[in-house]
Structures are given as structure tokens and as C-alpha cells.
């Protein structure tokens, strides 16, 4: 994890190199506090793809889920009847 003070943003070539060499976000501080996060386009696109895949997996899991009444009916039919 890289943390850089905001006054170093003037050296854009250096910041670009840091972002492209690291596969994670670079945190920018202002007056000692977190202010911004920057990252390379490659890192951003990879994170967006991971997020999209997680959302799709969650949606698939939700679509497969059954409501409680349906589950109880299946259990009763299997074990009570």
C-alpha cells in the first residue's frame, strides 16, 4: 500500500509510475488525513471486473434461494408424510 502526500502530485510522471508498478490503489493524504485514492486504469478495470463477477455470483445465489415456506413444505413431505 502506497501513501503519498498531496503536494507530491505535482510530479505526475512519478505518480503514474507508482500507480502502474503497483497493482493496488495509491492513497493521497492532505494535512495528514486521507483525501483521495488513485490507481492505474488496469487496476481499476480489474477491480471493476471482480466486482461485476461478485455481483453476478450473488444474483445467481439469490435466484437459487428458496423461501422458508417452500423449504418447510419439502421437509415435511420428506420426513413427516
Structural commentary:
The protein is α+β, with helices and mostly antiparallel strands and 81 residues long. The protein has three helices and three strands, in the order βαββαα. The protein has a three-stranded mixed beta sheet with strand order 1-2-3, with no helix packed on it. Strand 1, helix 1 and strand 2 (26-30) form a beta-alpha-beta unit. 1% of the residues are buried.
Task: Compile the SSE list and pairings.
Layout: E1 2-5, H1 12-21, E2 26-30, E3 33-38, H2 41-64, H3 68-79
Parallel strand pairs: 1-2
Antiparallel strand pairs: 2-3
Strand order of the largest sheet: 1-2-3
Q: Can you summarize the main beta sheet?
A: 3 strands, mixed
Q: Structural class of the helices, strands and pairings?
A: alpha+beta
Query: Shape from CA axes?
Result: rod-shaped
Number of strands: 3
Task: State the end-to-end distance.
Answer: 59 Å
Binned, the helix content reads 55-70%
Low-confidence stretches: none
Count of helices? 3
H/E series:
EHEEHH
Q: What is the arithmetic mean of pLDDT?
A: 88
Strand content: 15-25%
What is the alpha-carbon Rg in Å?
Answer: 24 Å
